[in-house]
Design brief:
With about 140 residues, the protein is an alpha+beta fold. About 30% of the residues lie in helices and about 15% in strands. It contains 4 helices and 6 strands; from the N terminus they run αββββαααββ. The strands form 2 sheets. It has a 4-stranded antiparallel β-sheet with strand order 1-2-3-4, covered by helices on one side. The longest helix is centred in the C-terminal third of the chain and has 13 residues. The radius of gyration is 19 Å and the shape is elongated. The relative contact order is 0.13.
Length: about 140
């Protein structure tokens, strides 16, 4: 009788995966690795299936708005999003002029993810337009 074992886990450093393979060493094993839908930039990793965000391997707790806005921008690095677009992508509602919700959410994200929130390297402001995610290798001083 043939057994099939399916394991699905978030294992960025592959320690769990290696341990499982070591245990099954004497068995006839075929490893099929699923394509990861993980998004990353710098030391930030976003796992959409579990809504998990990690910075340098450690989980960062984000609220609904923070995660949704980060995920929206991370799907298309270097694309500039207006406040209206980010608000709608996050809450599915039209942006009300004068609200600081997007600005405050970006501020919280920078405080949680940036090495120096006052000089962000990931979440950039595009003056008079909006915000974008920049991959570190594309940052300019």
């Amino acid at each position: 009788m043939e057994e099939i074992i399916i394991i699905r886990a978030i294992d960025p450093d592959k320690n769990v995966f290696k341990t499982i393979i070591d245990v099954l060493q004497d068995k006839s094993v075929q490893v099929v690795e699923a394509t990861s839908s993980m998004l990353s930039f710098g030391d930030i990793e976003i796992y959409p299936a579990s809504r998990c965000v990690r910075k340098a391997g450690k989980e960062v707790r984000l609220n609904y708005g923070e995660y949704s806005m980060l995920y929206c921008m991370a799907k298309s690095p270097d694309r500039v999003y207006t406040r209206e677009q980010l608000y709608y992508a996050t809450w599915g509602e039209d942006y009300e002029s004068g609200t600081n919700t997007v600005v405050n959410t970006i501020w919280r994200l920078r405080n949680k993810l940036e090495p120096d929130p006052r000089h962000p390297i990931y979440i950039k402001t595009v003056f008079r337009v909006g915000y974008k995610i920049v991959r570190p290798e594309k940052t300019q001083s």
